[in-house]
Amino acid sequence: MDTNLAYNLVDFEREKSGVTRLTLTDFRNYQFLRINAALAPIIITGENGSGKTNILEAVSFLTPGRGLRGARLADIKRITPENLNDEYQPTVIAPVSWAISAEVQNGGDIIEIGTAVERSARETEEDDYRSFERRIVKINGNKISSQAELGKYISAIWLTPQMDRLFRGGSQPRRSFLDRLVYAFDMEHAKRTANFEHLYKEWYRLLKEGKNDNHWLSTLEENMAGLGVAIAAARREQIAKLNTFIEHEPDDVFPSVKLELDGSIEKLLDTLPAVEAEDRYRQMLAKQRRNILYNDSVDGVNRTDFKVYYRRKGMPAELCSTGEQKSLLISIILAQSKCQTLHKGFAPVLLLDEVVAHLDDVKREALLEKVRELNVQAWITSTNPELFNSLKNEAQFMEVRNNNIISAIMMLCIII
Q1: Rounded CA gap, 20 and 7, in Å?
Q2: Which pTM was predicted?
């Protein structure tokens, strides 16, 4: 890898990427909202509860997955007094629950992306109706079968206040954070993780119900093993890529990190080829069938932990101070942004929700300077616009009030 990072990033300055127009319909607190956005830092301010984070969540839905909140699709529709107590009637189906449309620029290309939730009903065995909702995605007006297609045109990395506790809770949020990093480089990773989860739930249900159909269970285990090893391999590759990048390009302000995986299947791949690892994983699942009956844990890629270390101190992130943990997270997303820009040719959109709230003045200004240097589109929320005075000549400032944008001031429309 060429260590002259600044020189390499200049090659991509003209190939900017990001959202240039965002339209929300019945999304969270917005009945209708349209934002014309610059490919620059976008500062969104307003009181707590005004809907700033909802705008970032809408941008996150332009990428694969369930958005930065991981919310159920049914929970996102705008709540009004009229529909608060509305009971579902299968003969009267609202075709669309909420919708997002956007114009995305990727280099010299303009792409139209739309995503919405359709509400439908299906008849059950008891001659009753059950409602369900599904997300649909269109690219340039054409409906796509897999959300993974979105990764060709846009990706996003986010930091939210909830992630301040990422290193102190269970492994699931850290695993999800890692998988989002993998999505940017491996567009099929999201599909594989979703398929694995579906198979795991089916396997779990059969065992809990006592349906010991060995052929059925063995088929599920074989498919789970194949997907699981592919998931573990993609995670290992991403960790190696980021560690190599960080070693060559240590940050001058935020702490240097070391990333590791703590997972049995990932460790198998340290010594075994993928085919043998699949066989071992399949055998492991078969031996763990009894664990389900006794509510014991089942080892595998759905239990892998993502470990982060403060390299200079040699200290695991969970033992670092709250401020250090925030800085470690910022180090990871900055490294991911630079690495992706160089490897894929376009930068991710940064979604930074109240990210400067608990940073001291030095760290806050350092982060804003990094955003400026990366020349990326970053959507940043805060209650205090004055914290971003250093960006006043190159950022787009918006204020959210009464479920609408009441001001959108671009001090300098084009970053030179």
Answers
A1: 26
A2: 0.87
